[in-house]
Amino acid sequence: MKIKEELEALTDGAILNHSFTPYMRDYQIVVEVGGPNQGRRGQYKLLFTHCVQATFHTEVDDQGWRES
Fold it and tell me: What pLDDT, on the 0 to 100 scale, is given for residue 37?
């Protein structure tokens, strides 16, 4: 698979942790996926190397945060 397809397979997962590494060069994301509609199950650690800036956003609305 291409990298984009790999990342899209993880989009419905729960982000367990995300942060810069202690040496502040790389950015890591730990995600857990699994469920009846997903082909993958388990925890995955994504490491983006030589990352000087990281920007992210959520598509979960306020009601979704209250319910989760």
Answer: 65
Q: Which residue has the tokens 């040496």?
A: 23
Domain count along the chain: 1
> pTM surpassing 0.85?
no
Answer yes or no: are the C-beta atoms of 34 and 17 closer than 8 Å: no
Stretches where the chain sits below pLDDT 50 are none
Q: Residue 19, SS3?
A: strand
Q: Whole domain around residue 10: which residue ranges?
A: 3-55
Integer Cα distance of 21 and 29 in angstroms: 10
In-domain check, residue 62: no
